[in-house]
């Protein structure tokens, strides 16, 4: 199950923090140290600096190639937060989101380390690709949130961090970039929800030296989508909304987000205007009353399905709603891996054509 871009909370990062301080005592209560005490403090401080420098060197050696390397083949990638120097042949690649993992998988690369969460295991398309490739990458952060813990990144010893799909770059970019080069979304994008699928894939591809492969994936997927629309003309031109009930209640109209709107267009569907409310009130759900309404529930679905306003929507009364996990969850992080998965999925095709067939002309 994947909550998708639009649902991640603004959790704070555990580990490095701009507000951290060393020691727990109140400096106002400290006495002035003697001259010998100050000398001992300087000696201890000097030793601490030496140890930290040694640890940093050891971590750098662990995260790099076994042999000495120079800057030959190194590339520079600018992003929304700075500039990263990407090594020519990274060995220990960390994907901090399933979307980053999927982008690498679509290019034929399986990162050495991936983030997976106990309550939100990988989607079917991800596990299928891992199984097919016989890959078993290291897992980190198997906790109860999407929080990035810098101490776990240090322990993982990556030499490249893929974080195009991470919502936490404004909090963690500086911290993570001290551990390894970070690949994240470029300017003018300000969050993962703004990044279109081609830009996402091309960004990862450039870091991995797979730019030609990326263009092949994009062209092949575009051709497959065009063929899908040709084979299912009844779906093309139908208006559609995708709404999700997240924990906390209510419905979120995710289809007003650019990445979800583009995903719906892949099937020939017409998404709602971006000006529609992203969080419609339960007293006015008219913005969801389209030809087709795709639904996903993560909480008590009866709070929605038993609501009188919801039940009186024409799209609900006519049975033009769709509850298909593959269809709705792929929209949360549209990458070329899951886009191909849903285009090939007979259940997705049958659900869309069935709903489209009930639209009154």
TrEMBL record:
GO terms for cellular component: outer membrane-bounded periplasmic space. It is found in: Cell envelope. The chain crosses the membrane at residues 43-61. It comes from the Bacteria. The keyword Transport applies. Pfam families: Peripla_BP_2 (PF01497). The keyword Transport applies. Residues 16-39 are annotated as: Disordered. One of its GO terms (biological process) is iron coordination entity transport. Residues 92-356 form the Fe/B12 periplasmic-binding domain. InterPro entries: ABC_transptr_periplasmic_BD (IPR002491), Bact_iron-sidero_bind (IPR051313). Keywords: Membrane, Signal, Transmembrane, Transmembrane helix, Transport. Belongs to the bacterial solute-binding protein 8 family. This is Iron siderophore-binding protein. It comes from Gordonia spumicola.
